[in-house]
Specification:
- By secondary structure, this protein is an alpha+beta fold.
- The protein has 2 domains: 77 residues, Orthogonal Bundle (Arc Repressor Mutant, subunit A); 42 residues, no CATH class.
- 28% of the residues lie in helices and 20% in strands.
- It has 4 helices and 6 strands.
- The strands form 2 sheets. It has a 3-stranded antiparallel β-sheet. Strands 5-4-6 form a 3-stranded mixed β-sheet, with no helix packed on it.
- Strand 2 and strand 3 form a beta hairpin.
- Helix 3 packs across helix 4.
Length: 137
């Protein structure tokens, strides 16, 4: 996992990953990396819009995509209209609560995956992600 702490300035973290630390990127990174969390773009947008320097929706989406591409975040796609960004980049799985629209981490060792089907010719597995959809009783 990439260590993201308040002890190391966010600007250094971005530079280490080949990202130019613009004001908007730094502001988004400060929000994201203050703790381990699962957030969607709209949550970030609404939080940052409350600040002194609001950013556009396009900037938020572009920044999240860049951070994911550079390995700072992990995209968790629930469905085409629901994407979370996970600050925990270690391999793990998730519970998704359909009633509360929240993600909870599941350790990769808590799920045993056996008997995968034969892969199509010329392909290989990159990873296996499990999202267990749950609801409240």
């Amino acid at each position: 996992m990439i260590k993201k702490t308040n002890k190391r300035p966010v600007k250094h973290l971005l530079r280490e990953h080949g990202i130019t630390p613009t004001q908007q990127r730094v502001e988004i990174a400060n929000f994201l990396f203050k703790k381990q969390q699962h957030v969607c773009a709209d949550q970030i947008l609404s939080t940052i819009k409350q600040g002194q320097r609001p950013v556009s929706k396009a900037t938020v989406y572009n920044t999240l995509g860049l951070f994911a591409k550079k390995g700072l975040l992990r995209e968790v796609i629930i469905d085409p209209n629901k994407v979370f960004y996970d600050t925990n980049t270690e391999h793990h799985h998730h519970f998704y609560n359909t009633d509360t629209c929240t993600l909870t981490d599941v350790d990769k060792h808590d799920i045993n995956i056996n008997n995968l089907p034969t892969l199509p010719t010329g392909t290989k597995i990159h990873c296996v992600d499990v999202i267990i959809k749950i609801g409240n009783e």
